[in-house]
Design goal:
The protein contains four helices and 14 strands. It is α+β, with helices and mostly antiparallel strands.
């Protein structure tokens, strides 16, 4: 579908009590005035919009600059159609975003510039397929530079892992039971360390069940 065919915001799937930020009606789209990072931007009425169903790397992490540059090229100073918006726990507007009929959320994931959080509603199938495409082809955040099951430097084998749900930062030694199952995603604040002191200095705490117990 082309952007010009949408006359108002769709609200399907919104839960009771959800506030549609701004309450605006979409006719020809919202003008993007600033791109903040790889998954958020501002529109002309100063509302910050975050792309739904994905996480892009925070600035400073692997692929963060590339993600911001790609989103900037796609939408800055252009009009976008915002569908199914809702406010998250941080009072941010989260939505599916289209320009010229293209789903930007899917574009970012398909090109390895973000990973899916699987919350896209009616676009779940397309979003998941995009994530599978990037992972299978080792693009962007799934490239060997960012997605590392094994330490690039054998002398620095300590894995610094960030829990997806709690965001707790923990490190594992090679003799830990689940060590081999942990993949370091440098796009999302994880890394390898040469010593436990380095891991602790970076804010990680030890989490380890010895393999033989």
């Amino acid at each position: 579908m082309m952007a010009g065919k949408w006359k108002k915001l769709a609200v399907a799937g919104l839960t009771a009590g959800t506030v549609i930020a701004g309450g605006w009606m979409v006719t020809r789209g919202e003008l993007v005035t600033e791109v903040i990072d790889g998954d958020s931007f501002k529109i002309a009425n100063k509302t910050t919009v975050r792309l739904a169903s994905l996480n892009a790397p925070e600035m400073g992490n692997c692929m963060a600059t590339e993600a911001k540059e790609a989103l900037t090229k796609k939408i800055l100073k252009k009009r976008v159609v915002i569908l199914h918006p809702y406010n998250d726990l941080y009072r941010r507007t989260v939505a599916l975003v289209y320009t010229n009929g293209e789903l930007i959320n899917e574009y970012m994931i398909r090109n390895g510039l973000a990973v899916t959080t699987r919350e896209a509603g009616e676009e779940n199938a397309a979003i998941q397929a995009a994530n599978d495409y990037a992972r299978e082809r080792k693009l962007g955040v799934y490239s060997p530079d960012c997605f590392q099951p094994d330490p690039p430097n054998p002398k620095c084998p300590i894995k610094g892992n960030v829990d997806d749900r709690t965001h707790e930062k923990q490190y594992l030694l090679p003799d830990c039971r689940h060590y081999s199952k942990v993949i370091i995603e440098r796009s999302f604040g994880e890394d390898y360390f040469c010593t436990e002191a380095q891991a602790r200095a970076a804010g990680f705490t030890k989490s380890c069940d010895p393999r033989n117990q």
